[in-house]
Amino acid sequence: MSDNLKSSQLTDKQVESLARALEQAQHIVVMTGAGVSADSGIDTFRGKQNSLWAKYDPVTLASPEGFAKDPETVWQWYQWRRQQIEQATPNATHNMLAKLAERFSLSLITQNVDGLHHRAGSQQVAELHGNITVNRCNGECCDYQSANADSSAELSLCPQCKEHYLRPGVVWFGESLDENVLSYAEQAAQKADLFLSVGTSSQVYPAAGFAHIAKSHGATLIEINPQATALTSGVDLAIAQPAAKVFSALKRQ
Protein backbone atom coordinates (compact mmCIF):
# COMPACT_ATOMS: atom_id res chain seq x y z
CA MET A 1 0.00 0.00 0.00
CA SER A 2 1.59 3.24 -1.08
CA ASP A 3 -1.23 5.61 -1.99
CA ASN A 4 -2.45 8.03 0.66
CA LEU A 5 -6.19 8.13 0.01
CA LYS A 6 -8.03 11.17 1.30
CA SER A 7 -11.65 12.17 0.77
CA SER A 8 -14.27 14.36 2.41
CA GLN A 9 -16.56 11.33 2.24
CA LEU A 10 -15.86 7.76 3.29
CA THR A 11 -15.30 5.79 0.10
CA ASP A 12 -15.59 2.11 -0.73
CA LYS A 13 -11.95 2.21 -1.85
CA GLN A 14 -10.82 3.40 1.58
CA VAL A 15 -12.78 0.70 3.39
CA GLU A 16 -11.55 -1.96 0.96
CA SER A 17 -7.95 -0.80 1.44
CA LEU A 18 -8.36 -1.01 5.21
CA ALA A 19 -9.93 -4.47 5.01
CA ARG A 20 -7.17 -5.71 2.69
CA ALA A 21 -4.44 -4.37 4.98
CA LEU A 22 -5.99 -6.17 7.96
CA GLU A 23 -6.24 -9.44 6.06
CA GLN A 24 -2.64 -9.29 4.88
CA ALA A 25 -1.06 -8.28 8.21
CA GLN A 26 0.78 -10.72 10.44
CA HIS A 27 0.65 -8.55 13.53
CA ILE A 28 -1.65 -5.54 13.94
CA VAL A 29 -1.24 -2.79 16.51
CA VAL A 30 -4.10 -0.37 17.12
CA MET A 31 -3.68 2.87 19.06
CA THR A 32 -6.93 4.57 20.10
CA GLY A 33 -7.46 8.07 21.43
CA ALA A 34 -10.13 10.48 22.60
CA GLY A 35 -11.98 10.51 19.29
CA VAL A 36 -13.03 6.91 19.87
CA SER A 37 -14.57 7.83 23.22
CA ALA A 38 -16.19 10.93 21.69
CA ASP A 39 -18.10 8.65 19.30
CA SER A 40 -19.74 7.17 22.43
CA GLY A 41 -20.73 10.62 23.68
CA ILE A 42 -17.90 11.03 26.17
CA ASP A 43 -16.50 14.55 26.30
CA THR A 44 -12.88 14.88 25.26
CA PHE A 45 -10.58 15.83 28.12
CA ARG A 46 -10.01 19.38 26.91
CA GLY A 47 -13.47 19.71 25.39
CA LYS A 48 -16.42 21.71 26.69
CA GLN A 49 -17.07 21.05 30.35
CA ASN A 50 -20.42 20.72 32.08
CA SER A 51 -21.48 24.17 33.28
CA LEU A 52 -20.83 23.11 36.87
CA TRP A 53 -17.17 22.48 36.05
CA ALA A 54 -16.60 25.16 33.40
CA LYS A 55 -14.69 27.40 35.82
CA TYR A 56 -12.13 24.69 36.59
CA ASP A 57 -9.05 23.87 34.53
CA PRO A 58 -9.03 20.10 33.79
CA VAL A 59 -5.23 20.08 33.69
CA THR A 60 -5.12 21.48 37.24
CA LEU A 61 -7.69 18.99 38.50
CA ALA A 62 -5.89 16.06 36.90
CA SER A 63 -2.66 16.55 38.81
CA PRO A 64 -1.07 15.45 42.09
CA GLU A 65 -0.85 19.11 43.08
CA GLY A 66 -4.54 19.66 42.44
CA PHE A 67 -5.49 16.63 44.52
CA ALA A 68 -3.16 17.65 47.35
CA LYS A 69 -4.63 21.17 47.40
CA ASP A 70 -8.30 20.27 47.10
CA PRO A 71 -8.95 16.51 47.15
CA GLU A 72 -12.72 16.92 47.57
CA THR A 73 -13.13 18.99 44.39
CA VAL A 74 -10.90 16.68 42.35
CA TRP A 75 -12.77 13.63 43.63
CA GLN A 76 -16.17 15.10 42.78
CA TRP A 77 -14.96 16.02 39.27
CA TYR A 78 -13.87 12.46 38.66
CA GLN A 79 -17.13 11.14 40.05
CA TRP A 80 -18.95 13.33 37.51
CA ARG A 81 -16.75 11.94 34.74
CA ARG A 82 -17.40 8.37 35.95
CA GLN A 83 -21.14 8.93 35.86
CA GLN A 84 -20.89 10.18 32.29
CA ILE A 85 -18.89 7.10 31.31
CA GLU A 86 -21.36 4.77 33.01
CA GLN A 87 -24.10 6.15 30.78
CA ALA A 88 -22.04 5.57 27.62
CA THR A 89 -21.90 2.34 25.64
CA PRO A 90 -19.16 0.91 23.42
CA ASN A 91 -19.51 1.99 19.80
CA ALA A 92 -18.71 0.32 16.48
CA THR A 93 -14.97 0.91 16.91
CA HIS A 94 -14.80 -0.76 20.32
CA ASN A 95 -16.97 -3.67 19.15
CA MET A 96 -15.15 -4.23 15.88
CA LEU A 97 -11.70 -4.13 17.47
CA ALA A 98 -12.80 -6.78 19.97
CA LYS A 99 -13.96 -8.99 17.10
CA LEU A 100 -10.80 -8.38 15.05
CA ALA A 101 -8.71 -9.49 18.03
CA GLU A 102 -10.47 -12.85 17.85
CA ARG A 103 -9.45 -13.30 14.19
CA PHE A 104 -6.02 -11.70 14.01
CA SER A 105 -2.88 -11.17 16.04
CA LEU A 106 -3.79 -7.74 17.38
CA SER A 107 -2.34 -5.60 20.16
CA LEU A 108 -4.61 -2.84 21.43
CA ILE A 109 -3.14 0.28 23.02
CA THR A 110 -5.33 3.12 24.25
CA GLN A 111 -4.87 6.59 25.67
CA ASN A 112 -8.45 6.50 26.95
CA VAL A 113 -9.28 5.80 30.58
CA ASP A 114 -12.99 4.94 30.24
CA GLY A 115 -12.70 1.14 30.07
CA LEU A 116 -15.03 0.88 27.05
CA HIS A 117 -12.65 -1.45 25.22
CA HIS A 118 -13.03 -3.92 28.08
CA ARG A 119 -16.80 -3.53 28.07
CA ALA A 120 -16.83 -4.31 24.34
CA GLY A 121 -15.04 -7.59 25.00
CA SER A 122 -11.37 -6.82 24.36
CA GLN A 123 -9.42 -9.16 26.61
CA GLN A 124 -6.06 -7.41 26.66
CA VAL A 125 -5.79 -3.63 26.53
CA ALA A 126 -2.66 -1.61 27.24
CA GLU A 127 -4.13 1.41 29.03
CA LEU A 128 -1.37 4.00 28.88
CA HIS A 129 -3.15 6.52 31.08
CA GLY A 130 -4.79 4.07 33.48
CA ASN A 131 -8.47 3.32 34.07
CA ILE A 132 -10.98 5.68 35.67
CA THR A 133 -13.19 2.79 36.85
CA VAL A 134 -10.43 1.74 39.26
CA ASN A 135 -9.63 3.26 42.67
CA ARG A 136 -6.19 3.10 44.21
CA CYS A 137 -4.48 4.48 47.26
CA ASN A 138 -2.74 7.81 46.81
CA GLY A 139 0.03 6.77 49.19
CA GLU A 140 3.35 5.82 47.62
CA CYS A 141 3.91 2.93 50.03
CA CYS A 142 0.45 1.38 49.71
CA ASP A 143 -0.51 -0.90 46.81
CA TYR A 144 -4.26 -1.00 47.44
CA GLN A 145 -6.39 -1.06 44.29
CA SER A 146 -10.01 -1.93 43.59
CA ALA A 147 -12.01 -2.23 40.36
CA ASN A 148 -15.56 -1.08 39.59
CA ALA A 149 -15.38 2.15 41.56
CA ASP A 150 -18.69 3.46 42.90
CA SER A 151 -19.40 6.74 41.09
CA SER A 152 -21.63 7.93 43.93
CA ALA A 153 -19.18 7.26 46.77
CA GLU A 154 -17.77 10.08 48.86
CA LEU A 155 -14.07 10.78 49.16
CA SER A 156 -12.62 8.36 51.71
CA LEU A 157 -9.42 7.02 53.16
CA CYS A 158 -7.79 3.90 51.81
CA PRO A 159 -9.26 0.86 53.62
CA GLN A 160 -5.85 -0.80 53.71
CA CYS A 161 -3.46 1.83 55.07
CA LYS A 162 -6.16 4.14 56.50
CA GLU A 163 -3.77 7.08 56.05
CA HIS A 164 -4.15 8.31 52.49
CA TYR A 165 -7.14 9.11 50.34
CA LEU A 166 -8.37 6.86 47.57
CA ARG A 167 -7.91 8.34 44.10
CA PRO A 168 -8.86 7.37 40.55
CA GLY A 169 -6.57 4.85 38.92
CA VAL A 170 -5.48 7.23 36.16
CA VAL A 171 -2.14 8.79 35.32
CA TRP A 172 -2.12 12.46 36.26
CA PHE A 173 -0.08 15.22 34.66
CA GLY A 174 3.44 15.07 36.01
CA GLU A 175 3.24 11.36 36.83
CA SER A 176 5.15 8.64 35.01
CA LEU A 177 3.37 6.06 32.90
CA ASP A 178 3.47 2.46 34.04
CA GLU A 179 6.78 0.99 32.84
CA ASN A 180 5.27 -2.42 32.12
CA VAL A 181 2.51 -0.92 29.96
CA LEU A 182 5.03 1.26 28.13
CA SER A 183 7.30 -1.70 27.49
CA TYR A 184 4.41 -3.79 26.15
CA ALA A 185 3.34 -1.00 23.79
CA GLU A 186 6.86 -0.37 22.50
CA GLN A 187 7.53 -4.05 21.86
CA ALA A 188 4.19 -4.41 20.08
CA ALA A 189 5.01 -1.43 17.85
CA GLN A 190 8.37 -2.95 16.97
CA LYS A 191 6.71 -6.22 15.89
CA ALA A 192 3.85 -4.63 13.96
CA ASP A 193 3.57 -4.84 10.21
CA LEU A 194 0.34 -2.82 10.36
CA PHE A 195 -0.21 0.09 12.75
CA LEU A 196 -3.61 1.81 13.02
CA SER A 197 -3.81 5.24 14.66
CA VAL A 198 -7.48 5.72 15.50
CA GLY A 199 -9.14 8.84 16.89
CA THR A 200 -5.99 10.44 18.23
CA SER A 201 -4.34 13.78 17.50
CA SER A 202 -0.88 12.18 17.73
CA GLN A 203 0.37 15.07 19.87
CA VAL A 204 0.86 13.49 23.28
CA TYR A 205 4.09 11.59 23.84
CA PRO A 206 5.17 8.90 24.41
CA ALA A 207 1.92 7.60 22.86
CA ALA A 208 2.45 9.55 19.64
CA GLY A 209 5.86 7.93 19.21
CA PHE A 210 4.63 4.37 18.79
CA ALA A 211 3.52 4.94 15.20
CA HIS A 212 7.00 6.20 14.36
CA ILE A 213 8.56 3.16 16.02
CA ALA A 214 6.31 0.89 13.95
CA LYS A 215 7.14 2.80 10.76
CA SER A 216 10.87 2.54 11.44
CA HIS A 217 10.45 -1.24 11.64
CA GLY A 218 8.68 -1.38 8.30
CA ALA A 219 5.01 -1.27 9.31
CA THR A 220 2.23 0.12 7.15
CA LEU A 221 0.59 3.11 8.87
CA ILE A 222 -3.14 3.83 8.63
CA GLU A 223 -4.69 6.85 10.31
CA ILE A 224 -8.41 7.16 11.02
CA ASN A 225 -9.23 10.63 12.35
CA PRO A 226 -11.57 13.40 11.18
CA GLN A 227 -8.84 16.05 11.30
CA ALA A 228 -5.32 16.00 9.93
CA THR A 229 -2.62 15.45 12.58
CA ALA A 230 1.13 15.63 12.85
CA LEU A 231 1.17 12.01 11.71
CA THR A 232 -1.01 12.40 8.60
CA SER A 233 1.70 13.32 6.09
CA GLY A 234 3.68 10.20 6.91
CA VAL A 235 0.95 7.55 6.78
CA ASP A 236 0.17 5.14 3.95
CA LEU A 237 -3.58 5.60 4.20
CA ALA A 238 -5.39 8.53 5.84
CA ILE A 239 -9.13 8.19 6.35
CA ALA A 240 -10.48 11.57 7.49
CA GLN A 241 -13.66 10.26 9.09
CA PRO A 242 -14.97 9.47 12.59
CA ALA A 243 -13.72 6.07 13.66
CA ALA A 244 -17.18 4.65 14.41
CA LYS A 245 -18.30 5.45 10.86
CA VAL A 246 -15.28 3.67 9.39
CA PHE A 247 -15.58 0.56 11.54
CA SER A 248 -19.32 0.37 10.91
CA ALA A 249 -18.54 0.29 7.19
CA LEU A 250 -15.78 -2.27 7.76
CA LYS A 251 -18.25 -4.55 9.53
CA ARG A 252 -20.43 -4.55 6.42
CA GLN A 253 -17.54 -5.70 4.21
From TrEMBL:
Residues that hold substrate according to the record: 78, 81
Annotated cofactor note: Binds 1 zinc ion per subunit.
Chain positions recorded as NAD(+) binding sites: 111-114, 199-201, 225-227, 243
Broad EC category: transferase
Keywords, comma-separated and alphabetical: Cytoplasm, Metal-binding, NAD, Transferase, Zinc
One Pfam family per UniProt: SIR2
SUPFAM superfamilies given in the database record: DHS-like NAD/FAD-binding domain (SSF52467)
Known EC number: 2.3.1.286
GO molecular function ontology, one term from the record: zinc ion binding
Main subcellular location of this protein, as a coarse class: cytoplasm
InterPro entries noted in UniProt: DHS-like_NAD/FAD-binding_dom, NAD-dep_sirtuin_deacylases, Sirtuin, Sirtuin_cat_small_dom_sf, Sirtuin_class_III, Ssirtuin_cat_dom
Active site: 129
Catalyzed chemical reaction(s): N(6)-acetyl-L-lysyl-[protein] + NAD(+) + H2O = 2''-O-acetyl-ADP-D-ribose + nicotinamide + L-lysyl-[protein]; N(6)-succinyl-L-lysyl-[protein] + NAD(+) + H2O = 2''-O-succinyl-ADP-D-ribose + nicotinamide + L-lysyl-[protein]
Function, as annotated: NAD-dependent lysine deacetylase and desuccinylase that specifically removes acetyl and succinyl groups on target proteins. Modulates the activities of several proteins which are inactive in their acylated form.
Domain comment quoted from the record: 2 residues (Tyr-78 and Arg-81) present in a large hydrophobic pocket are probably involved in substrate specificity. They are important for desuccinylation activity, but dispensable for deacetylation activity.
Protein name stated in the entry: NAD-dependent protein deacylase
Native species: Pleionea mediterranea
Lineage: Bacteria, Pseudomonadati, Pseudomonadota, Gammaproteobacteria, Oceanospirillales
